[in-house]
Amino acid sequence: NAGVTQTPKFQVLKTGQSMTLQCAQDMNHEYMSWYRQDPGMGLRLIHYSVGAGITDQGEVPNGYNVSRSTTEDFPLRLLSAAPSQTSVYFCASSGGYGVSTFGSGTRLTVV
Amino acid sequence: KQEVTQIPAALSVPEGENLVLNCSFTDSAIYNLQWFRQDPGKGLTSLLLIQSSQREQTSGRLNASLDKSSGRSTLYIAASQPGDSATYLCAFNAGGTSYGKLTFGQGTILTVHP
After folding, report:
1. B59-90 pLDDT, tens per residue?
2. Degrees (nearest 5) of the Cα angle A22, A105, B8?
3. Which residue on chain A is closest to B87 by alpha carbon?
4. pLDDT digits (tens, 9 = 90+) for B27-44
5. Do the chains contact at A101 and B34, CB–CB below 8 Å?
6. Residues of chain B with a CB closer than 8 angstroms to some CB in chain A
7. How far is Cα B25 from Cα B28, in angstroms, rounded to an integer?
8. Residue B75: phi, psi to the nearest 5?
9. How far apart are CA A91 and CA A102, in angstroms?
């Protein structure tokens, strides 16, 4: 049972480039979410999904897009990378009992 | 807006001490509260989850309590060990339409020295 799998683990982008951070879970959880973690700011919610086809914005959604075509996958797209998006990104999923399971993270640097 | 505060921000203790980490939240409409551990450069590992109907949960040397009326949760670590050194995060879940959307505290950095 892999839990929540994030790829890639590390990425360096140039300003203006686009990319997709992948997230997959094998626990059949309805709820999936993306967070970013920055020093002094803690973990902040970017986007959120309550099921396939349903997404919603979190606290810091600007510059990011998401879609949820299947229960298992919840990719995060950076449309035009900016240095302010340098961060560590975590994907999480939650099931009916409310326990959230996190992936191991993607460390993104935008230069 | 929900705010979650963790005190202290950092804690350094000798091995064997019992210690308490504090988490406070401003919104009493809580569904559950989850405590996580994060090792440097790693992801978050769930330690304990307390539902709003519960007062405490225990796992090994860890005990977490919840007081909704005062907006507080505490994580008690008994007989601390160097392997307990990590950042401890609490996360608030309001439930309802916000189910699964966690609001995190800033964390407590714990160092247990031999």
Report:
1. 999 999 999 999 999 999 999 999 999 999 99
2. 150
3. A42
4. 878 889 999 999 998 999
5. no
6. 31-32, 34, 36, 42-46, 49, 51, 89, 91, 93, 95, 99-107
7. 7
8. -115, 120
9. 6
